[in-house]
Amino acid sequence: MLIRIIMTVVLLVLFWLGTRRMRVIPTRGQSLTEMAMDFVRINIAEDLLGKKDGRRFLPLLMTMFFLILAFNITGIIPFMNIAGSSVVGFPIVLAVISYVMFMYAGIKKSPGNFFKNSLFPAGVPWVMYIIVTPIEFLSTFIMRPITLALRLLMNMLVGHLLLVLFFAATQFFLFSADGIFKLFGVGTFAFGFAFTLFEILVAALQAYVFTLLTAVYIQLALAEEH
């Protein structure tokens, strides 16, 4: 929780510094802030939802992306060394928020048809609804929030455990092992360092995937067939 609080404050400070004095000719800090925000606005919100709906849901998607990224990256920051998203509470909260927004978008778009069209897809023979409807219910209303939470949690948890394994092995070989076995410490350290760099990519990728899937679910809820 302390890591989450620290990173939330860091995010607020960074965005405040980047936007407190907006100029027509941007400063370096403003340019970096605008580039980061445009990545979410253009590549996720507007690409999937269009300009109108993208603008509606942009605050949610923007907050989600940068919060997940900040919490993920703490897994490789010295003296923190654990991702704020590698404990199940945070992924569950985000998955619930994503699910609620999916339901809200669908019900507001088509109050009378959202659940009907979700559970009874058009063009399916009536007899097949005995099989199709339970599958659609499980995949749409049960599995989506579960898979969202587990995907984020497990990626960050497994990454954390691998880093612990590599560097614990390095400490053992360098300081506790005897003779030639100390050389294994060089190999485990090299693997740990390489995986640390890989974890930076994973941290950004998981933030992108979670936010992208949330936008996809909202887009499906706003689709004309609903």
From TrEMBL:
Q: Which InterPro entries match?
A: ATP_synth_F0_asu, ATP_synth_F0_asu_bact/mt, F0_ATP_A_sf
- Main location as per UniProt: membrane
Q: Which residues form a coiled coil?
A: none
Keywords attached to this entry: ATP synthesis, Cell membrane, CF(0), Hydrogen ion transport, Ion transport, Membrane, Transmembrane, Transmembrane helix, Transport
Where are the membrane-spanning stretches? Answer: 57-80, 87-107, 119-140, 152-174
Q: Where in the cell is it found?
A: Cell membrane; Membrane
SUPFAM superfamilies given in the database record: F1F0 ATP synthase subunit A
CDD domains linked? ATP-synt_Fo_a_6
Its function, per the record, reads: Key component of the proton channel; it plays a direct role in the translocation of protons across the membrane.
Family of this protein: Belongs to the ATPase A chain family.
Q: What is the protein named? A: ATP synthase subunit a
